[in-house]
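Subject: complex prediction, re-run

Hi both,

The earlier run crashed halfway through, so I resubmitted it with identical inputs.
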Amino acid sequence: MRVSQNSAKKVVGVLALQGAFDSHERMLSELDVATQEVRTPQDLSVVDALIMPGGESTTMSQLLESSELYEPIKKMIHEGMPVFGTCAGMILLAKRIFDGRDDQVSFNAIDIEVQRNAYGRQVDSFEAEIQVERLDGAFHAVFIRAPRIVNLSPDVEVLAKFGSDVVLARQKNVLVAAFHPELSDDKRVHEMFVKEI
Amino acid sequence: MAKRETENPGKSATGSMLVKRGLAEMLKGGVIMDVVNPEQAKIAEDAGACAVMALERVPADIRRDGGVARMSDPEMITGIQAVCSIPVMAKARIGHFVEAQVLESLGVDFIDESEVLTPADEAHHIDKLKFTIPFVCGATNLGEALRRISEGAALIRSKGEAGTGNIVEAVRHLRSIIGDIRKITQADSAELFEWAKRLQAPLPLVQEIAETGWLQVPLFCAGGIATPSDAALAMQLGAQAVFVGSGIFKSDDPAPRAKAIVEATTHFRDPEIIAKVSRNLGGPMTGIGMDKIEQRYAERGW
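This time it finished cleanly. Structure:
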């Protein structure tokens, strides 16, 4: 865990290059957490943790490079910054991406292999109740053109499954979800992430 | 492929309003580009588009050619789906629910019930609640936006005036929609009845704006964006993403302009970045003044 210099309130950055970043911000502010939209290296310099939202991973991949954010984020994740990726964010954090673009970057931050749009097109997008480890009662999960974890290392902790698919997982400082906890009103997954900061 | 394994492992549902709106949420902060063939779709995806709109002619050409504009050839849409990994949208005529059924059967990700095509029904929009796939509809004012939402639209775009390369109408429509949202958040509960009457919109949707300060669905901008600054203007006015139609592929050099518009949409509050990406893009589409156009597409729909 990255420990900040003083007891000042921790700031959770939300990568705001493209996607549903404002839904994450709303969640965080309801949890009374300070947020910072991250579009530039300067924005990044003030955050203690980072959420990578859902959206289009190929778009974000290009903007990570043109905005000169890829290298500094990679370094901070390596140094232990807590990071949470949902959907496209999970794709960006994965070790390997199937059905991505050849030039698509990933942070290789969690030992999983993911397949983009694995459940089909939008007509196949769905919502379902899942059971999340250590949470009482079901969690309502929304899957939008969702990616699927097709391989994961034994070092990765499984936190939730949908059928046989792992849909919420953690390895050290990296948390990933194939679904969108920011689209429901249930704040418990965000709370789980914020507690670790 | 592996789809069957996970079918119904627990209780799950497709096509709900939350699932439809979910895709609209994922497009925020992005650029949706009109493309007329697979080559353009590749250029759009390479430039960082978050989705493409597959259509036979861009609005500038529809305007030039005249005649009846219809849904695109399914062959052309599937050709674009084959080369793209990002969401593919397509347009149906206002009220033409069979075109929408056809587009849904092709598996397009979003249907645009669009005033750019020639309307098929002069009184009724499509009942969008009947479909599994989400719809985006245009609006020139808040009342129109709320009527479309009540019919099941999962995303609203300000109409602007498509195919003109002129941002003035988009600005008018955005200011009208967002200005009225602001006023409603200041209104007291008794005044909301009057707002609903004036807007010709369902009262619960007006009350919801008063409570949440925003529409139930995202609001994007369309119609007239031709430059990176145009895109950033729409975003600063409060649009949450932009559609660019003729503005890219009717310009001198589409690929760098497409990329520049993507970057300006992300960094919409940063004039230095907008200046940097606006350099040496070649000529934008020529564009036309509002006093020179014969048919205002924005007047289609009600």
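Chain B touches chain A through 47 residues (CB under 8 Å).

- K.
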